[in-house]
Every structure is written in structure tokens, then in C-alpha cells.
């Protein structure tokens, strides 16, 4: 009896082993089936039956009260918040030159904020935020009015020569190195390579970041020197949400007495790259060939995709005061990003996600900075959808140039643009961020003029913008498993040259 049981057990084991072998063999031989391309589809934008009409109201473009305290210091007063908190944002701005090593300074300021969170007696210390860009860096707090003076003292203290005495530089270094690994999965890695491809290797926005040698050998003295170097040629701006004039007057006095000085006459080494402007013709002939760049990521189950254009910037003195909505107008970039790339109702999202299920999301964004303006469409897709996804984006760029959008779609675009301005005014943080962006661009209070332009927008104007900007091949950069997707790319995009590059 025992012998028969043993024989049966061995037989079962043999069968299980055989089934497992067959299963594994089948998995190894599974062939990736790639998705077919389809003609682009757009929504008909039919309204909901019985839906109420929404009155969006008007943009109030005069909410900011500006007080120029000195040539390099200004106070910008905003209406008080409903929460009764006083929002403070101390901003250093330089529209003419990008900040050097701003990623390092931002990381150090965040580390200082963590230290202050454990030691400061401010009840609002956990609201401390750092908002850094290439042309501005803002330190922000939202505090009870009674703590506003103390809060501003703390913000200004972040710019004193002893600001980083108590922080751990090893932690700053580790965080910067950790960010590099996180970026490989979050999209930061491909965006770093994208910036080099779309702007050029020697553009200051690329040269002024990711200084590994400095980060590895950073000393407290060097950190302070890097921070103080940002002051040259810059200006100070304090944004405050309050109607309490006595308190605001006290804050203004503190600014003029205690802020580190900035000077436009201070010696500053400015290379030719910092005055970087590409003429319009060079921008539109920089990518005459259909080139697709791919970063190999073996084992990646998704393909990250970036498709876009570098747009020209015309110097202020050459710009007509009347918006022309040509390729050099920042509103053109913004409108095309919204038309094709806004979530839910944008053409790309509607077709490639809602109708075809090729992605969780596909978006468009205009990156508008003083020395570079780019239009980027971005998203991720599964490996088997790679060719169809990229081909779908290109088909929509072509369709946008070929035919005018219908009245309902034009109306939806106008409502979306107007809603963005109005939503920004409903949140103090959003209003501050938008205003800081305008300060860094050197063009304040543009919302009202842009709203008027959007209201007068015609379908023909939108199509003309698309024809001008989409008339040349876009820059395409993807990150995915080359061995698995290369054949699909060659089949779906036969006219495109595929170049493998390293991150």
C-alpha cells in the first residue's frame, strides 16, 4: 500500500514538473502583438441636455497693488485670504539671466526648512515652501497675521551668509543623488535628455544645472558663495496677502533694511550663452529631418514619449504691443497645448485614451521662459502600443494643420482658457505662482489682454497657428525597451530615422 502511494506521488510530481515546463516554455515563446494604427478621431462636443449655463465672470486684472520701495525691492499686495492667514512669498527674480546651480540651492533651502521645522517656534513653520525656477526662487509661508513679522524675518534669514550653518551637506548630496535614480522612473531622466535635444547641449538652461563635480565636493563656503552669486543683477519682490496697512508698512521697512543687497553694476561673468537667442529661421530649420531618439531601458514595461517643438522668442523691443498670435507669441504656444493636449477634452486625450485606450494620459504643455519656449506633448504607453501611440500623436498634428476646428470645439477651447485664469484667482497659492511666473518673464498683468485675445479667437486663426508651428517635423524622444519595440517603430514610422542615445 505504501509502495503504491509512493509511485502515485512520483507520478504526480512528474506530471506537475512536465506541466510547469510546458507553461514556462509557452511564456518564453509568447510574441508581443503590436497595436495597429487608426485614423484620428475628434469629439463632436455635444452639450448635455438640460445642463445649466455657467457664467464664468470677468478677470479682475487690478488685484495687485505694487509699491516700489527701491530700484531692486518691491512689495506686491494681494487681497486677504478667506482663511485669515497672511500669505508671504519672498521672491528673488532675474528675467535676463538664468540662475546657476538653482537645483543645488533649492535642495539646500529645503534641508534648511526641515531643520527649522524641528527648531522654530512659528506655529506655521510647516507651511514653509520653496518654489524654484531658472529665473526665480520663492520662499513661502502662510501664517496668522500676528506672526507675519516673525515669518518674514525667517524668510530673509534664508539669504544671510550664515543660513546654511546648521544643515547637513551630506544629506543634501544624498538627496541630489537620490533624485537622479527617482528621475529614471518618474520621467525626470527623459525630460533632462529632452531639454538637451530640444534646446541644444550648450543652452544655459542645460549648462546651469546638474553640476555633479560641484555637488560631490561641496563645502559650506562654496554653498554660500553659490547662493550669494544669485543676487547679482536680480531684484527682490515680497508678495503678501493682507489689507492691514500698518503690518504691511512694517514689512516694507524690514525689506529695505534687512535684505541682502543686489546690484546691476556688480561684476558678473556672463558668457555668450547667457544672452542666448536663436533667430526665428534657425528655430524652424533646426529639425528638417524626421529623427526619433530613443533611450534604451531594458525590461521597461512602458514607453515614455515626448513629442514637441522649440518656438522662437522675439525680444521685447521688437514685439508689437498688439498680439498677432504668430509663432513667436506665447499665447500661440499655450493655445496649441490646450487644444490638443488638455486632459479629458483635448484631442489627444479623447482619441488616444478615451477611444483607443493606448495610454493612461497624454498631455500638452507650453514651457514659456525668457530664453526658451517649447511646446511639448507627453505621456506613456504600454510596449505593444508604442508605434500606434506615436503615430497617433503625429496624425493629430497633421489633422490640426489640415482642417479648421468646428464652432463647438472652438467654444470649448475658449472656455478652458478663461477658466484657467479664473481658477488661478480662487487660490492664493495659484495666484502667487502665476504672478511669480509673470515677474520672472518680465511681463506682469497680461491675463486681461490674453483673455481679450482668446475671446476674439477664430477657427482660422487657430488653424494658421497649427500650420505654422507644425509645418516641420517635431522632435521625438522616447524611453523604452529597444529590443522589443524597435521593429514596431520601424513598421509604423518608416520615414523616421531612429537613433539610440544614452541618458
From TrEMBL:
GO molecular function: metal ion binding
Keywords associated with the record: Signal
Pfam short name (any one): Peptidase_M16_C
Signal peptide as annotated in the record: 1-28
Gene3D superfamilies registered for this protein in UniProt: Metalloenzyme, LuxS/M16 peptidase-like (3.30.830.10)
Keyword Signal: yes
Domain Peptidase M16 C-terminal: 280-414
Family matches, as InterPro entries: Metalloenz_LuxS/M16 (IPR011249), Peptidase_M16_C (IPR007863)
Superkingdom field: Bacteria
Protein known as: Peptidase M16 domain protein
Classification lineage: Bacteria, Pseudomonadati, Pseudomonadota, Gammaproteobacteria, Alteromonadales
Amino acid at each position: 500500500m505504501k509502495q503504491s502511494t509512493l509511485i502515485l506521488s512520483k507520478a504526480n510530481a512528474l506530471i506537475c514538473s512536465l506541466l510547469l515546463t510546458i507553461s514556462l516554455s509557452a511564456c518564453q515563446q509568447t510574441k508581443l502583438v503590436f497595436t495597429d494604427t487608426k485614423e484620428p478621431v475628434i469629439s463632436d462636443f455635444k452639450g448635455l441636455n438640460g445642463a445649466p449655463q455657467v457664467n464664468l465672470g470677468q478677470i479682475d486684472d487690478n488685484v495687485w497693488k505694487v509699491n516700489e520701495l527701491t530700484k531692486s525691492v518691491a512689495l506686491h499686495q494681494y487681497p486677504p485670504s478667506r482663511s485669515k492667514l497672511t500669505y508671504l512669498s519672498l521672491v528673488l527674480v532675474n528675467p535676463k539671466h538664468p540662475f546657476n546651480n538653482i537645483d543645488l540651492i533649492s535642495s539646500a533651502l529645503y534641508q534648511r526648512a526641515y531643520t527649522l521645522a524641528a527648531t522654530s517656534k512659528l506655529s506655521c513653520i510647516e507651511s514653509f515652501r520653496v518654489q524654484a525656477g531658472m529665473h526665480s526662487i520663492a520662499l513661502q509661508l502662510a501664517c496668522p497675521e500676528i506672526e507675519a513679522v516673525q515669518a518674514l524675518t525667517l524668510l530673509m534669514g534664508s539669504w544671510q551668509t550664515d543660513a546654511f550653518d546648521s544643515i547637513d551637506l551630506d544629506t543634501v548630496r544624498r538627496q541630489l543623488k537620490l533624485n537622479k535614480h527617482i528621475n529614471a522612473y518618474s520621467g525626470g531622466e527623459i525630460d533632462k535628455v529632452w531639454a538637451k535635444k530640444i534646446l541644444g547641449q550648450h543652452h544655459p538652461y542645460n549648462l546651469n544645472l546638474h553640476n555633479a563635480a560641484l555637488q560631490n565636493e561641496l563645502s559650506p563656503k562654496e554653498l554660500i558663495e553659490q547662493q550669494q552669486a544669485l543676487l547679482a543683477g536680480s531684484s527682490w519682490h515680497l508678495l503678501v496677502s493682507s489689507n492691514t496697512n500698518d503690518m504691511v508698512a512694517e514689512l516694507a521697512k524690514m525689506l529695505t533694511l534687512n535684505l541682502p543687497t543686489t546690484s546691476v553694476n556688480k561684476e558678473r561673468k556672463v558668457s555668450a550663452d547667457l544672452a542666448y537667442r536663436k533667430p526665428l529661421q534657425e528655430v524652424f530649420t533646426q529639425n528638417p529631418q524626421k529623427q526619433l531618439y530613443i533611450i534604451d531601458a531594458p525590461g521597461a514595461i512602458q514607453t515614455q514619449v515626448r513629442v514637441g517643438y522649440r518656438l522662437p522668442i522675439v525680444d521685447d523691443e521688437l514685439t508689437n504691443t498688439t498680439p498677432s498670435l504668430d509663432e513667436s507669441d506665447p499665447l500661440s504656444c499655450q493655445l496649441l497645448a490646450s487644444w490638443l493636449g488638455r486632459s479629458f477634452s483635448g484631442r489627444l486625450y479623447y482619441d488616444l485614451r478615451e477611444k483607443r485606450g493606448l495610454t493612461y494620459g497624454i498631455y500638452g504643455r507650453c514651457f514659456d521662459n525668457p530664453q526658451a519656449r517649447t511646446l511639448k506633448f507627453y505621456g506613456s504607453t504600454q510596449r505593444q502600443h508604442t508605434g500606434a501611440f506615436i503615430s497617433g500623436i503625429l496624425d493629430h498634428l497633421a489633422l490640426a494643420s489640415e482642417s479648421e476646428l468646428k464652432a463647438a470645439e472652438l467654444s470649448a477651447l475658449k472656455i478652458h482658457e478663461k477658466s484657467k485664469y479664473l481658477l488661478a484667482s480662487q487660490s492664493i497659492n495659484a495666484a502667487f505662482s502665476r504672478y511669480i511666473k509673470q515677474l520672472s518673464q518680465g511681463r506682469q498683468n497680461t491675463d486681461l489682454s490674453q483673455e481679450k485675445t482668446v475671446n476674439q479667437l477664430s477657427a482660422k486663426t487657430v488653424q494658421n497657428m497649427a500650420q505654422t508651428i507644425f509645418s516641420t517635423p517635431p522632435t521625438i524622444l522616447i524611453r523604452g525597451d529597444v529590443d522589443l519595440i524597435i521593429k514596431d517603430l520601424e513598421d509604423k514610422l518608416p520615414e523616421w530615422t531612429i537613433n539610440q542615445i544614452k541618458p
